[in-house]
Amino acid sequence: MVVPENLNYTSWLTVKQMMNKHFIVIHPNDSLRTVIQYYQDSRLDTLPVVDNNDKLIGVFPKKRLYKALLDGSSLDDPCTPYIVNEPISVSCDLCYDEVSMVVRSSQSLVDYVVVVDHQGAPVGMIGTAEYLRGSQKLIMTSNVLLESIFNANYEGIIVIDNNGKILRTNPVAEKMFGLISSEIKGLHLEYVLPDLKLFSNRSRGVKQIIQDLPVIVSQMPIMADNIQIGTKIAFVDISDMEQMARELEIVKDLQTNLDGVLNASSDGVFVSDISGYVKYINESGCRLISNTSEAMTGMPIKKLLPSGLPAEVSKTGITEVEVCSINGRNCIVSHIPINKVIYDETQTVGVVSTVYLDDNRLTEEIARKWLSLRQQVQYYRDELEKRGNSFDNLVSKNPAFIKMKKDAHRIARSSSTVLLTGESGVGKDMFAHAIHSASPRANQPFVKVNCAAIPESLLESELFGYAPGSFTGASRKGKTGYFTQAHEGTVFLDEIGDMPLSIQVKILQVLQDKEFMRVGGIRTQKVDVRIIAATNKDLREAISKGAFREDLFYRLNVIQFNLPPLRERSEDIWPLTQVFIQKYNEILGSNVVGITQAAKDALLIHSWPGNIRELENTIERAANYVLEGEIGIEHLSAQIFQFGQKAYEPSSYRAVLSDVDKEMLLVALKKAKGNKSAAARLLKMSRSAFYEKLGKYNLS
Question: Which residues form the signal peptide (predicted)?
Fold first, then answer.
């Protein structure tokens, strides 16, 4: 069957598709004997005659051969006298329905017509047999098209003959009235649908009730050669139309409300599609550009807003904010993607660009916060660029921690697995980053995975990815896992003590064989990664409880660093405090110059259960309150003064100083197990000053 390239049926069949390509050409000087041989080989009744340039000059029909023999010509005589010159021919690209082809074929004096190309050279022969075969193919193709249109029609359709008997029904009509086509074919329509009222002439849009179903009926005659051969009856379910009308009204109401909301805004709103063409502009946007909505709709958004960000947002799906000048006015512009779920995938289908003008307080506040965010982003970017060897950023004066840094710097050059242990907040994350940055993999990805933050049902697919369509809701393109993303780099498995046993088996396989299999995959994948794991749990205890695999523990525990808590490296509290003050001065734009002695003493005696993270949060909070000058004891959070289980509530500045002073003495005595000389050394005080304070607070 001919497969049409488009729905223009007149172009479905050409002469080139119908013609017989198996023919032999004759030259004027060929003998009659040669011509007889050619006829025998080609089995055609007519053969084309060409000149020395292979262009058609005539034809030699088989009846001319008979005439030559009757005239007494010898078989060795040339065929020239019997050639039909200036024959009828057709072009190879003529279509089936072109009158010129049919006319030329019928006017020809021979049974077969020569088909020529654009240079006039024969490329085939066409006759009645070829034409009929082509017609049959065209009829079959047309029938397939008509069937598809008939069955895909939204309306219910019943076709009857002139006697009212049913010839055809489409699936919509069968479903509408509960009919079965094979059972009702040939029955009279009045018997099948007695409620249906038919008219003698054509009718459109007549409302009727058929089998308690309200429908709109249209009746059209089927004509052939100006004679009616049947009737087509179309049915539309009114309930469907009413539902569509209601939905249309809802859409209109939403559009009206949306227009009202957007036009009430003092900010300009521009909506563009995925191709970057404007679909909507509110009144403020029209005033800003000094043009009408009708004139600007359909224009490229880049002609209205001097920015390339809308196109970028439509590609990335990530919100962007910028400052730009529009018609001489300084504006802040946000570009927010419009997302739509298509086939279980979220796709960006447009962008909303909102122009915040500089003539209201809200815009000033947005500008101030936006600039602050930019300043923070720039700070973190600069920090990343300055990182280099991150071990330099691990501030410490503690001898044990300094040695640990040196050991870690040395082993960073290898690819051995590292296990970091220690309480929450001691800096395991930074330590892992430092090892990666000092390793030969520094320029490759560092991928952090918090094993406790990802649900168990998703953890395997997040770590190893999944194949396309491997489970309900999976992306049709599949997904790349963290291990693949970190190829030739480092994977940091934080909180590995919370990893489910089912996933631990696959991690063990990666460590042993450097390979894994995606969820729903059929073959393993090789991967080159270094694994750094971290936990604040006792893994040996977890092994004894059956919550952690012993073989995985030994695979992870090749090199272990147990990071000490801040309370065991109290000499680092002040250096870290200085680092954090400088950091938040840059982030917040503050000018904190230091910390009072009382506040410093309070930090020194605190037990820091949250370790370095808690200290950083404390300084960040204080910097927000101070902004300039020194951090005082009144700027510290209440939890710093939680002695035992009872929170301390200072009544005055002097009371705070006295209570902190007294508490420091008690803590020092406790640490020194009552040895006053040792307690004085802990506080770096002379014995006489220490005894004087003991007497002051009646602690002697």
Answer: none
- Kind and range of the H or E element at 267? none
Distances (CA, A) of 26 to 120, 247, 420: 15, 73, 93
Q: 349: which 2 tokens?
A: 């289908």
Between residues 215 and 104, the one the model is more confident about: 215
Please tell me the distance from the alpha carbon of residue 124 to that of residue 21, in angstroms, as a whole number.
Answer: 5
Instruction: Give the separation between CA 643 and CA 561, rounded to whole angstroms.
Output: 32
Taking the alpha carbons at both ends of the chain, their separation in whole angstroms is 111
- CA 323 vs. chain centroid, Å, equals 28
Q: Which residues contact 337 (CB under 8 A, 6 or more apart)?
A: 313, 314, 317, 318, 319, 348, 350, 351
- Between CA 601 and CA 461 the distance in angstroms is 49
Residues 6+ away with beta carbon under 8 Å from 97: 10
Task: Give pLDDT tens digits for 549-595.
Answer: 999 999 999 999 999 999 888 889 999 999 999 888 888 888 888 89
pTM above 0.85, yes or no: no
Q: Is 263 within 8 Å of 269 (Cβ atoms)?
A: no
Nearest CA-CA partner of 323 in 276, 356, 350: 356
* The two structure tokens encoding residue 98: 């072109």
Q: Is the dihedral of CA 562, 566, 568, 570 positive or negative?
A: positive
CB atoms within 10 A of CB 318: 11
**Residue 641: which of 670, 616, 617, 664 has the closest Cα?**
664
Taking only the tens place, the pLDDT of each residue in 506-545 is 888 888 888 888 887 778 888 899 999 999 999 999 999 9
Closest CA to 138 of 32, 268, 1: 1
Residue 42 · residue 25 · CB < 8 Å: no
Tell me: pLDDT of 138 over 70: no
| Cα–Cα distance, 149 to 142 (Å, whole number) | 11
Cβ-based burial of 540 (10 A; exposed 0-12, middle 13-18, buried ≥19) = exposed
Burial 606-626 (b: 16+ CB within 10 A, else e): bebebbbbbbbebbeebbeeb
SS3 label, residue 329: strand
Q: What is the Cα–Cα distance from 263 to 270, expressed in whole angstroms?
A: 11
Q: Give φ, ψ of 203 to 5 degrees.
A: -145, 150
Long-range contacts of 210-217 (CB under 8 A, 24+ apart): 210/177, 210/235, 211/177, 211/178, 213/176, 213/177, 213/237, 213/239, 214/238, 214/239, 215/156, 215/176, 216/241
391 secondary structure, DSSP code: G
Alpha helices in 421-476 (DSSP H): 428-437, 456-464
Which pair of structure tokens corresponds to residue 374? 């930019």
pLDDT for the residue 637 = 80
